[in-house]
Amino acid sequence: MSVANVPVKKKKSEFAKYPTGDKTILIIAYIILGIFLAAIILPVLYIILASFIDPITLQNKGVTFDFVSEPDAAAYLSSSSYFYKTKAYAKSFEKYRSDGSAKGRYINLDFGHLVELERLDGVLRDLVLRLALDIEHAIKTRINAAAMRSGTDPLEVSRRFMSESYGAVLAEQVRGYDVDAAYGRVDFAVEKLTCADLKDAEEAVDSVNDAIGVLKLVTSERDPLYLRSSMQAMASSRYSGGIVRKHGGALMPYWCLMELVSFGPLISLYKCCFRPGGAIADEREAAVLKDVRNLLRQAQSLRNAAAHGDALMHTLSTYSTSSSMKGVRRKLAQRGLEGQWVADVASVPLAMELAGVLMAHETLVVSEGAVDAAADSLSDASAQFARSSPMFSKTYSVAAFTRFATEILRAFAERLVSGAHLASDIW
Predict the structure, then answer these.
(1) C-alpha to C-alpha distance for 116 and 384, rounded to whole angstroms
(2) Is pLDDT at 256 greater than 90 in this prediction?
(3) Which terminal Cβ of the chain has fewer Cβ within 10 Å, N or C?
(4) What are the distances in angstroms from CA 24 to CA 12, 20, 29?
(5) φ, ψ (nearest 5 deg) of residue 20
(6) Among 112, 131, 119, 120, which Cα is nearest to 385's?
(7) Poorest-confidence range of 189-193, 262-266, 354-358?
(8) 3-class secondary structure for 208-247?
């Protein structure tokens, strides 16, 4: 046989040498590695692409780049913020409404306006959170002081509050109850549970989750025991878990309860204590509650938005004429704070909620250190709004709010420094 006819054996690849079981493991490993790399590379590619695409998208909507260049805008959207968040502030600017090529394009909007509004929004959020923390501490201090003065049973305060919280949610569930819908939902839940194979863990859990989800619709997706559940969930916290573990599921004194509830329930506790026939008999604090009741509603709304990092100043062209907002304006007038700068934003929820926070803080917070620190923060924020205000002179809604913020923050800083807030009849 000639050499030319000798069959040549092909060399096996390294992968082919592995047993079938090992090959399977390697394939799975390669797939996992590929997914891992894709999870890293794709977001980076998105950021790079977004850096080039987003300024173009804005430009097509009539946004100019006079204050901030397009390359700088691209860099801003890839390192300092992101397109969805920054563009949200464009909602406060007007668009062309008439037919024609300009319809739907923004009027007098530059990318620099969006950047500056986002910066001022951060200033406003930080300020609101600072003031809200002062208000929260002041409420706790006031409840404790009044309870000490009146000799109220600390467990009775907690019992009353927990009972009223349960009753309020139960009443809401009853009001929202739909008997016709309830039949279908309960039947669905029963069928899910009775047909589930309880020996199959995945099927059993899925069926129970489906049943619970549908049954929650019957009760308006509210839980009368939400306060107790939320506090029990804090048992693992290294900061407040000790309180929960000490008392377990037993009723705890109000000073422990105050350390566990969030801002909204704390306001409810304050109302529970000092409204007519409340848990604590104290005429002086009852008068304070009457004065700030509506203001606290505004403070809670704005504080929650700030705490969640929501964009605040994208709502400057949103208007409302609710009775609670009218009440805030009346409170401002009682303090001599009125004029065109107030009238221009009297229907803007953000403006009236900010005023509510300021007046609630002024009324409730009396600690000298907290008052002095708040006055400094208000003065600084006012100065920042004042410097930026001329930039928005061509857009009514933004110009009106930045002027309002400048004036009202300065006014309350001056009131805190002068002690004008202590001249109220409730003191």
Answers:
(1) 11
(2) yes
(3) N
(4) 18, 6, 9
(5) -55, -40
(6) 120
(7) 189-193
(8) HHHHHHHHHHHCCCCCCCHHHHHHHHHHHCCCCHHHHHHH
Mean pLDDT, the chain, integer = 88
Nearest to 269 by CA among 221, 220, 327, 227: 227
Q: Are 188 and 281 in contact (CB under 8 A)?
A: no
Question: Kindly report the CA angle at 421 between 145 and 258, in degrees rounded to 5?
Answer: 30
Give the three-state DSSP class for 118: helix
Please determine, for residue 97, whether its predicted confidence score (pLDDT) is greater than 90: no
pLDDT given at position 46: 53
The pair of structure tokens assigned to 266 is 């704390």
Give the whole-angstrom CA distance, residue 406 versus residue 381.
Answer: 8
- Please choose, from the candidates 302, 275, 298, 262, the residue with its C-alpha nearest in 3D space to the C-alpha of residue 143: 275
pTM here is 0.82
Tokens of 130: 């600072």
pLDDT at 122 over 80: yes
Query: Is residue 95 classed as helix, strand or coil in its secondary structure?
Result: strand
Q: What is the DSSP string of 270-298?
A: HHHHHSTT-SS--HHHHHHHHHHHHHHHH
What pLDDT score does 409 carry?
98
Give the span between the Cα atoms of 59 and 105, in whole angstroms.
9
**pLDDT at position 427, please?**
45
Q: What are phi and psi of 134, to 5 degrees?
A: -60, -45
Q: Is the pLDDT of residue 5 over 60?
A: no
Q: Tell me how far apart the alpha carbons of residues 388 and 394 are, in angstroms, rounded to a whole number.
A: 13
